[in-house]
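Input for the complex:
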Amino acid sequence: MRQDSSRQSAGGPCVGLFVTCLVDAMRPAIGFAAINLLEAAGCRVEVPLQQTCCGQPALNSGDLAGARQIAQHTIALLEPFEYVVVPSGSCAATIRVHYTELFHEDPVWRARAQALAARTHELLSFLVDIRGWLPEQVALSASATYHDSCSGLRELAINAQPRRLLAAVEGLSLRPLEGNATCCGFGGMFCVKYAAISNAIVAEKAQSIEATGAELLLGGDLGCLMNLAGKLHRRGSRVRAFHTAEILAGMGGGPAIGEAT
Amino acid sequence: MSGARQRLSFDARVRDALADPLLKVAIDRTTGNARAKRAAAMAAWPGFSAARELGRDIKDHVIAHLDHYLVQFERNARSSGAQVHWARSGPEACDIVVAICRKAGARTVTRSKSMLGEEIGLPHALQEAAIERVETDLAEHIIQLAGDPPSHIIWPALHKTREQVAELFHAHHHDPGTLDSIEAMVASARRELRGRFLAADVGISGANFLIADTGAVCTVTNEGNAELTTTPPRVHIVTAGIEKLVPSCAHAMAMLRLLVRSATGAELTQYTTFHCGPKRPGDLDGPAEFHIVLVDGGRTRMLAEGLAEMLRCIRCGACLNHCVVYRHIGGHAYGAVYPGPMGSVLTPMLDGLPQSKDLPRACTLNGQCQEVCPVAIPLPTLLRGWRDRIWSTGLESVTVRQGFAVWRFLALHPALYRQASAMAVWMMAWFARGGWIARMPLAGGWTRYRDMPRPPRRTFIAQYRRRMARP
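Predicted:
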């Protein structure tokens, strides 16, 4: 299953990058930023080309049979790698936390799911906790505020890592966001199924973001960022949204989410 | 629950709630205050996480040994002079209460706030039996005047602003006075209720804890209304869910520390009372008859159907105060007795899943409810469990099921998935103006309220392949 890659450097752990279906379709820059960061942190990066979605929408909709099938596809695809890295807290949590629950009655797949879960990490926490890496000589003169996405925060305890990484970016000042740990109202299918409630939540969140006066909104999950950036734009706000990986990879000077290339 | 509101669909109730600007003001005032006070109480309590584990273990232990503790409680309550009744269901519990009232020749009953009373439909049953009911909790008094059901399990009148309460008191109280301050409003309610406390034939309360080794019933209030409800009348009736059991008074204290801090941020309620049997010879006051109605009402079924963890719930309301959905739609939109995260787990059990299938789904699964729960109930997991049940019992719409079938097929066939996603991003670009899509077919749920960023011309995998192909 592994793909040969001319980008491999000798030594360092072999990391399989699972970009997530949303990054694949909506914001490839995050995937390329992740490759750059992982290589800078001394990893050999491979992108298994047969990857699709982690199955989270099925899991959260109660379609357990569907979620299991997609999980089996993903487990088989990713298990050859020493580490699997995902630039999203909620997709990483699906693999790390929920895959094993899906197979509680199937010892063979449960063991495979557990083995994969132990080696799967969200990108920002992987860089800090596993690789002990911080960016050097990355500069961006801007003020930013940070939204903690819920799955990463509560299922994977990601909180300090992105802040440590961003603190190492020269010229970037982080402003506290009131209610930074409160859900943005995305919730996957929730945001279209219960659109009016989702809107009320994200509108309040957008106000809090605007109130910081920060130029940039940063986060670690594209779903939440698209929800927030889309609401901010609809409100006529000038706040620009990026995935943290893009800033760390020195791509903060490029187009933000929703800005024409 | 008022019938008219319950008959509306969930979406219609949500629409009404979101259209009411005063509702959001009222919710923000009370829940904002509650969150801040709880946070301060937890910050000042280094032992919280150990206490939480202990609380969880106490409840789990009792739930696993319900048979033992129920029998022990009944024996000790009887030997203290209480009369113990068993009710399988809400209607059965109401019948027992009404029969006791009738036997006592009751015309008026006072009632202190009890969510179980709401759950079993006691206000309605008393009305049907032509027994006058006087709610003595201040918030319950407010919603009784307004004809509303409770909208929060701790603050039933949370949906009313103080300005609205002043209007109500002005319209209904015999001697409202100026009502220009909260103190003046409380004084008006006191003047209104004081005589009613003393005139009641029967007092009905709930229970915060049933203490097995003494047979005592513990109630906590901040207004002292439970004491005035249960002491002067000739008959005191307790209605309690069987999950309220704790082994001993020490266990009740351990739970109380968690309950009060989680609910209001205080260390203790103003009144913590242990009701143990009727008036004994030589006692200065107390009821001549003391009845305890123990209600199953679906609780043993929860035990059997994988919802045992929900029986830990001590009704503190912290999950409501921290829920982003509750904080925008309020309690009434849930269309059930128990709103918020805990209600969305309980209601499908109490009212049936087909009628309440929106509740477990109208949740972002953000997990804040579980984080603040003082007995660590895995609320998101239990809500997911209901979603699984909705799917497996065919309650999900055909359109959604078909959509998922197509998507799943593609996710399992990467080559087709690549083609489909390439086509999707190509088509989306048609609707874009600059970097944004403001309107697009099949995406109304998103674009009605927010813009959608325009996807790039090629997906990540397509771009990555090209890079790899370069020499």
